[in-house]
TrEMBL record:
Domain of life assignment: Bacteria
Keyword ATP-binding: yes
Family matches, as PROSITE patterns: ABC_TRANSPORTER_1, ABC_TRANSPORTER_2
Domain ABC transporter residue range list: 7-237
Xref: SMART domains: AAA
Protein's name according to its UniProt entry: ABC transporter ATP-binding protein
Coiled coil: none
GO MF, any single term: ATP binding
Keyword terms: ATP-binding, Nucleotide-binding, Transport
Pfam family, one: TOBE_2
Amino acid sequence: MNETIKLEIQNMTKLYKNGDGVKNINLKVRQGELMTLLGPSGCGKTTILRTIGGFLECNAGAILIDGKDIADLPPEKRPTAMVFQSYNLWPHMTVFDNLAFGLKLRKVPKAEIADRILDVLNLVKMPGTEKKYPNQMSGGQQQRIAIARSLLLKPEVLLLDEPFSALDAKIRMQMREELRKIQTDLDITVVFVTHDQEEAMALSDSTVVMNKGSIEQIGSPYEVYHHPASRYVADFIGEMNFIETQAGMHTAVRPENIRVEKGGGGDLEGQVRNIMMLGHYTEMVVQTRFGIVKAFVSGSEADLFKRGEHVALYFSDSRQFSE
């Protein structure tokens, strides 16, 4: 990946009257990188996105694109484009007119507008829809048009605010794959906001895990999953067992990092409480003296055990966290 820094946020603070917001945010996004801001509702991820886009004014700090501070520019003067969760298409306009609107404001020649719209509709797999109205299309199709509209403006940084959250699971997965392909083919820089950890893991080059207006960890999906920097990150990303083996200290181990064997011994032992087949893996719930522990095993392994059986648990990877 290109190591050139495309977007840099320096010591940015944006606080609302009630005291919520974000403080001292520092981020660097490289050219062609897809960075995800991940966290629960109210953690500040959309606040950061809207300050980048100019829809919110930050109280302090700098926002640089290609080394130039854009923090004082209005949204229309920034080299960014934003795609919202709600599509924001004009219902009374055709697809063509929705797409042409921003280009007309920029005084792009008519012939060029038509050519660029045809190209971008092919890019988002929506050719031949120029004369349709938004209410004649599904949610996934409308979101494709919203993304196409942003791409037409040729932004230096594309901002996406939970763009797929209103779509059903199958369409959401398809849209992720298509967005990732478009993003890598065009080598565009993207900042993507989501509360969905699976979406962040699937899409990101780098993931920013947020908590109450602050950044808990920045890293690749692999790093934040396998090497969480805090108990909060370990708990938020994926499934995790927290086993309090001594006061104030917890052993954290992922269910897929537990091997189950018959008999006693191991790192922990207990009785099989439940066995649930969950598609390509089976979840075994084991009652130990420290509480419930979940292990993910294959179907063939699960067939070797029955409820109530005494088992030993072996941890192939674990971490320690204090309260």
